[in-house]
Amino acid sequence: MSEIISLLDAAHAAVHADPENEALRLRFFERLADGEMFLLLEREAQGDTLDPKVFDLEDGRFVLVFDREERLAGFTGGIAPYAALPGRVIAGLLKGQGIGLGVNLGVGRSEMLLPPEAMDWLAETLDEGPEAVEALPEQFHAPAVPEALITGLDAKLARAAGLASGALLAAVTYRGGRRGHMLAFLDVADGAQGALARAASEALVFSGIEAGELDVAFLHSADPAVAAMARVALRFDLPEVEARTVPGAAPGMDPKRPPRLV
User: Domain coordinates of the chain in residue numbers?
Assistant: First the structure.
């Protein structure tokens, strides 16, 4: 049977082939943050409390994650307790703990050890949210942004099902002469503004664009600005919700009740 190559494997292979390429390294960490990871536990989770299995290795202390459930089973040799969490949640749990992350050890092409400093960096990068500003657009223009940002936005918004009907990206000139780029989300669901703004911010950060800025707005499709913007903008269509899940059904899935480490 042929081996299944995961997205994380592909991102890791790209970094291995060109280790000095910062954009590829950022893409790997973005895959790690956005993907569902299976965290090996010492024992079954008790409510919101997790007890990860910590390994003392020559390079320090590490917890282990796997990007496929069968890879975890291949490492443990059978059934073992685990928690399925987004990589970003695991990075937040490890922040400041002095514990690194072992990824797919012995069972995947993306096998590697990430030191505690790397996990601290990732957690801090993900914590950097957008800042609120006020400015009045006067004119919209066709966007002129690197392909890496468009690819990053496309990937982020593909996972934002049901949060908005779509998004428009255009260059903009504001009153006073300042120029920039605006990403306008249309018909945003109640309470989704923060998540969408953070997704846009992360797409910019992980695109590797130095000193890049991206303004985010929330508009209704009927707003006059939307018609003017749509004439020159690049449009992103967000997928519709297929099925609703209950927040908090698994540890780490409710942002108001993140899991605790013991």
Answer: 7-127, 137-236
